[in-house]
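Memo to structure team: turn this sequence into structure tokens by end of day. - J.P.
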Amino acid sequence: MPRARPGAPERAPKGWTNLPSPSGRGQLRVSRGFVSRDLAARDLYVWRPDGVDDDAPLPVLYMQDGQNLFDARLVPFGVAWEADACLSRLIDAGRIAPIMVVGVACTHERFAEYAPALILEQLAAPARQAILDAWPGAPKSAAYARMLVEEIKPLIEEAFATSPGQAGAFLAGSSMGAVAAAELLARYPETFAGAAMLSAHFSLLPVTETEPLPAGFAEDVARAVGVFARRHMPRAGSHRLWLDRSALSIDRFYPPSHAALVGALSALGYVEDKDLRVRVYGGVGHDEGAWRERLDEALAFLLAPFPI
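Reply from structure team:
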């Protein structure tokens, strides 16, 4: 089968519609209104790079908040991650092998779907109640993880040529989407090879900076994050993790929980700048523009061939 010209439209698989790739690179498709067994309907986006036969299997990067990845017109804040441009640069430079992206859009139940049940169950009652009051509804992270692994992943594998096994699947997200990526990896460590967690909101609150917090909230959350990682995250050896935060906005509340996570991961055998990379970005805040600017660095580390 001949390879596609950069940006050339190809016939979309059944149930998928071609979209213009904002960068002019690769093939972007959407499946509208995917219906899960347990959760609200959402759109799914798939991007495949240039120069790859349709039947050539590719590893897959599953990204949360999929509506924010490509087209800035779909983003409430007017700035997209520009994942198509990022991955095209990395592939062109030979820093990573060709890979496809699956963007899983969020819904009106975003906080409930991304709320990390495996962390919340480690919290003292006052801290847990403060979170439940701020994010109405019981956490649905188990159902979200199950949807991605048992419903979306098979759907993608049926429609597109994908690489088999753990080494062919990765996760990424920002803010609460980064926390969701961590819980997905914790629940399905044999399914995914790693996760990029940008501005990972392991502090859980504040979000608006107006929420009432019980005494000792930050300390309790940091303790719970550490317990979560020690009990549920995979030991080092076949996974790679990227963790970052900005210095401004709500990211300034992240140091205790991030330190707890890094400490627990180190106890599991992860070594910084080998299979774990931790970064802090000064002068920027909690927004798509900041994440877009460091996405190249995050994905170059996450997706580099093993071993580093």
